[in-house]
Amino acid sequence: MALIVQKYGGSSLETAERIRAVAERIVATKKQGHDVVVVCSAMGDTTDELLDLAAQVNPVPPGREMDMLLTAGERISNALVAMAIESFGAKAQSFTGSQAGVITTEKHGNARIVEVTPGRVREALDKGRICLVAGFQGVNRESKDVTTLGRGGSDTTAVALAAALKADVCEIYSDVDGVYTADPRIVSNAKKLEKLSFEEMLELAAVGSKILVLRSVEYARAFGVPMRVRSSYSNDPGTLVAGSMEDIPVEEATLTGVATDNSEAKITIVGIQDSPGAAAKIFRTVADAEINIDMVLQNVSAIENNLTDITFTCPRSEGPRAVEMLKKIQEAEGWANVLYDDQVGKVSLVGAGMKSHPGVTATFCETLRDHGINIELISTSEIRISVLIRESELPEAARALHAAFELGGDEEAKVYAGTGR
Amino acid sequence: MALIVQKYGGSSLETAERIRAVAERIVATKKQGHDVVVVCSAMGDTTDELLDLAAQVNPVPPGREMDMLLTAGERISNALVAMAIESFGAKAQSFTGSQAGVITTEKHGNARIVEVTPGRVREALDKGRICLVAGFQGVNRESKDVTTLGRGGSDTTAVALAAALKADVCEIYSDVDGVYTADPRIVSNAKKLEKLSFEEMLELAAVGSKILVLRSVEYARAFGVPMRVRSSYSNDPGTLVAGSMEDIPVEEATLTGVATDNSEAKITIVGIQDSPGAAAKIFRTVADAEINIDMVLQNVSAIENNLTDITFTCPRSEGPRAVEMLKKIQEAEGWANVLYDDQVGKVSLVGAGMKSHPGVTATFCETLRDHGINIELISTSEIRISVLIRESELPEAARALHAAFELGGDEEAKVYAGTGR
């Protein structure tokens, strides 16, 4: 008998019918003899609708009230799933984040979990009940106010509960049935991975895979909670995310997959006097606006005039704001120009096998060259290569790299409608 | 400076625009120098929508989960009103029933308030904040689970908070601007009352006035909390409900008003052997089905065969079920028949003045006779006369009685669209 934590996303809970389907799956797991704790997101578009209402009554709503408002969504979905479970003859009990002992930092809107003390959940499990815990929420220690965990918070709730309850596995259900070697909508023979390490999953999440939220994988890695990515529409075992890359024998280390990302924009500052502090000025300006920078390139300065260019990427949604901040200081800093390009895309190759296969970078670049694709920026980690190219060339690049590194399977991949968040 | 508790119903909070209007009114009260505690119902049809969803996932939803579900509605409206208040420059803080210290009995779906310990609310008031408390909900002492207070529970929350905080008044806002001598949609010159006693309001609520929920008036009377019925659309002072009938000098005691009710049905059991226990059997059967009985009539039995009839009224929605229960035992009990009539209506006259004016019952019956209206059942209390007539004759009866007792004003009454619950 295992203790299993299951997390269901909003699209799996969009209607009463889907809620009943999810409940049936939960009850089936319980009937296999396991203890089951379930974390549900808010139904379908509930959160967006509440955000919209809030914006109508106050364009700058106070954080504490925003959290009180948004957490209602998860209460609703969890109570409904509990009801549906009871209709299938099993016993269920729902808990708010606070009741489940999810203690967070004080900050509203983006609190971090400090501690999970799931005494009431444990007690209910011991009575043979299926426990439903509202995701995305907790209570802060000082003020005893309701807090939310920010984007993807329900995944983090699930992993944190799994860690606190010493669960055997944390299953993340969405409309995607696993982690693939590439996006099956782009690469038709993308293969579902049976297993990958936390490090590989972190790299994939960081370069655009939307399967799992980065923060939840970090949490799972820190506490050694195995995660399993599964679809709420099939019985496929999905993909296991567990173990450290260090534990994979060299001869078994492989390449994990190809990821694409078209959510970034490129900013280039032209004609910078190449002196100490020039780059720092740029990145401080952007950081002060709370904009994250991803890839960075600084050219070697031309000998004749000692001028250089700096190029970096940031989220496309923040691009115009970043440009505005930089244009403000352009004259004072003496830069020739600030250029903006939002037609870029990033293609990445991830895998622990990269460490033991020195030719990977060369093959990567040759493959793109053979397809006439120009590389604008390169960034690498121990187990990842990412390059910036034209957005329009992303699909071709992904297919070419996927084929060059022989990542594909023999079958056509199943393609799902949504993205599963 | 006074401490004022204000309660706003769902129709006053139907849209973002109305929420902003309510917030403006709350801030205006605060700016007059008063401490303000606000209790909000769920927005518009939220509760009905949640009930509908619950019915879809489980036709017999467990009470605990139902309460977890339904209380989300009040969290949403209270958080939104708090946000709107902040947008007008005042400080607001919202509380769940549990956070506000509303402790209830264990029973889900229809819990009763045991105690209110509003320490956190008091503290926030002392910091100059406007406090929003989610109505209709509390937390039970033993299980620490969320409970709901049943129909009209938000009114009860408001009165209970007012009592615990020793508030000067509890204002109940809806789309009706006071208590009238009759329903203005039926009697065009119905007059708004400036003031009435708790007993008179209780009698009116019991015989069909939907202005205030019976339970909240009972609570207010027990704790001596003055209530004021006001409209959220006007600045009219509304109607004050306060004081005991006993304290009204005889010469000032008047007739309060006429109320009509078409929510009941009439059941007659024909041919009952007139022996001890015959009536008890009927009422035990109905009581076991948790159906409330209102008016009762037992005929004098005919001498020749010692047979009698018993007639009673109950909620029309429960009528068919009551008949079904009685039909089941009809043969065993030897009754001739069980008759059902849902075309009945009840018209009532209420007022402390009745005690000192002995001719009221006579005038009441003569008035109906003069209009050719037949009385089917009569029931009375010290300050009330109610009769059962044909439903179709209700408007005429109300107008005739209103005129006969000279309850009307000189002006046409304002007529509102909704009923204000």
Automatic annotation (TrEMBL), chains A, B:
Q: Where does ATP bind?
A: K7, Y8, G9, G10, Y180, R185
Xref: InterPro entries: AceGlu_kinase-like_sf, ACT-like_dom_sf, ACT_Aspartokinase, ACT_dom, AKii-LysC-BS, Asp/Glu/Uridylate_kinase, Asp_kin_monofn, Asp_kinase
Residue span, ACT domain: 267-352
Q: Which PANTHER family match?
A: ASPARTATE KINASE (PTHR21499), ASPARTOKINASE (PTHR21499:SF3)
**Residues the record lists as binding substrate:** T47, E74
Broad enzyme group:
transferase
Q: What is this protein called?
A: Aspartokinase
Family, per entry: Belongs to the aspartokinase family.
Reaction catalysed by this enzyme: L-aspartate + ATP = 4-phospho-L-aspartate + ADP
Per the record, GO CC terms? cytosol
Query: What EC number(s) does the entry state?
Result: 2.7.2.4
Keywords for this entry? Amino-acid biosynthesis, ATP-binding, Diaminopimelate biosynthesis, Kinase, Lysine biosynthesis, Nucleotide-binding, Repeat, Transferase
GO BP, one annotated term? homoserine biosynthetic process
The major lineage groups are:
Bacteria, Bacillati, Actinomycetota, Actinomycetes, Mycobacteriales
Pathway the protein acts in: Amino-acid biosynthesis; L-lysine biosynthesis via DAP pathway; (S)-tetrahydrodipicolinate from L-aspartate: step 1/4; Amino-acid biosynthesis; L-threonine biosynthesis; L-threonine from L-aspartate: step 1/5; Amino-acid biosynthesis; L-methionine biosynthesis via de novo pathway; L-homoserine from L-aspartate: step 1/3
Source organism of this protein record: Corynebacterium epidermidicanis
